From TrEMBL:
Residues 44-180 form the AAA+ ATPase domain. Keywords: Chaperone, GTP-binding, Hydrolase, Nucleotide-binding. The keyword Chaperone applies. InterPro entries: AAA+_ATPase, GTPase/Isobutyryl-CoA_mutase, GTPase_ArgK, P-loop_NTPase. SMART domains: AAA. It comes from the Archaea. This is LAO/AO transport system ATPase. GO terms for molecular function: GTP binding; GTPase activity. The keyword Oxidoreductase does not apply. Belongs to the SIMIBI class G3E GTPase family. ArgK/MeaB subfamily.
């Protein structure tokens, strides 16, 4: 490929990296070519999903993790999913500014992407960016989401390790836990442990884990840890747990297996997106016919006709 942007990106040029990622995110022709090349080099990064309700301290924790990783000589990629709700927009902007200070540091690349309407939807774009950052040599990749149910499931398929943030003072946290939304963590991080109320949350989560109420992914017994992202306590211990989990996966040949699944998911989501675009266009163009045939009681015939139209576009 006669494109030196990719070469420059692979050489660490930040502006080139940014261009490459933008092309990939928007699924341009160049973007797909970049992704194809980068996939040859990817598969080494440890990917860590971080989820929790707005205000749980995700950005604060990620800042602390970045510092820790960079000091240890790692290159860190961070992908943040924009919450689509306008209510959380204010705090999100605040987070973003804090994160941008960090992005000035060498060896850190932070990218936030829009979740495109579906609440917290972890889209194909996010998985593509993970794949790209991995191929560009970022060896620790953090994926941050707002913690909606579907998002968590999708983050799971894209990350090796999933950390669920739980905080004191939000009574519904434990409710969420019981409702099954938060059952999927490899690590439960009780944040804001500088507050005395954190103790009760810790006990409740510990009880849930020990009584088997949570899911044991890959036979890994989920860990529970108290941290204060703000006061930076427990961060090294948390990183140690992440490393231990990565090692656990490696010794069971699951580390690469998860990369493989992430890639399959990426391709599947890309195909779905393309098919969806075709379907949307066909629906858009045939509104009048649809109204007419439905009112004449010919829904079955309508579906068959539209299906043919979609097939013609393939
Ligand atoms: P996010 O919405 O999950 O990204 O949460 P933020 O990182 O923006 O944090 C939300 C609020 O909680 C901010 O005011 C933080 O300063 C505060 N916060 C984060 N971590 C801690 C902590 O460990 N202890 C205390 N007391 N406050 C924290």
């Amino acid at each position: 490929m006669s494109d030196d942007i990719l070469d420059r990106a692979m050489g660490g040029d930040e502006i080139a990296i940014s261009k490459v990622l933008t092309n990939i995110e928007y699924d341009t022709k160049n973007g797909l070519e970049y992704l194809s090349v980068l996939s040859k080099f990817s598969g080494k990064a440890h990917t860590i999903g971080i989820t929790g309700i707005p205000g749980a301290g995700k950005s604060t924790l990620i800042s602390a993790l970045i510092e820790n990783y960079v000091k240890a000589g790692h290159k860190v990629g961070v992908i943040m999913i924009d919450p689509s709700s306008p209510i959380s927009m204010g705090s999100f902007m605040g987070n973003r500014i804090r994160m941008q200070e960090k992005s000035l540091m060498n060896n850190v690349f932070i990218r936030s992407i829009a979740s495109r309407g579906h609440l917290g939807g972890f889209t194909s774009e996010a998985i593509m960016l993970t794949e790209a950052l991995d191929g560009l040599g970022y060896d620790r990749i953090i994926l941050e989401t707002v913690g909606a149910g579907q998002t968590d499931t999708d983050v799971m398929s894209a990350s090796h390790t999933l950390a669920v943030l739980v905080i004191p003072g939000a009574g519904d946290e434990i409710q969420a836990f019981k409702a099954g939304i938060m059952e999927i963590g490899d690590v439960y991080v009780i944040n804001k442990a500088d507050k005395p109320e954190a103790e009760a949350v810790y006990d409740a989560v510990k009880f849930a884990v020990e009584s088997g109420e949570v899911y044991y992914r890959d036979e890994w017994k989920p860990r529970i840890i108290k941290v204060s992202a703000l006061k930076k306590t427990g961060i090294q211990e948390l990183v140690d747990i992440f490393e231990e989990h990565a090692e656990f996966l490696r010794t069971r040949n699951l580390f690469y297996e998860k990369v493989r699944k992430r890639r399959i998911k990426m391709i599947e989501l890309l195909l779905r997106k393309r098919f969806n675009n075709i379907i949307s266009k066909v629906v858009e163009k045939n509104q009048n016919v649809m109204d007419e045939m439905i009112s004449k009681g010919k829904t079955d015939e309508l579906i068959a006709n539209l299906y043919d139209l979609v097939k013609q576009q393939l």
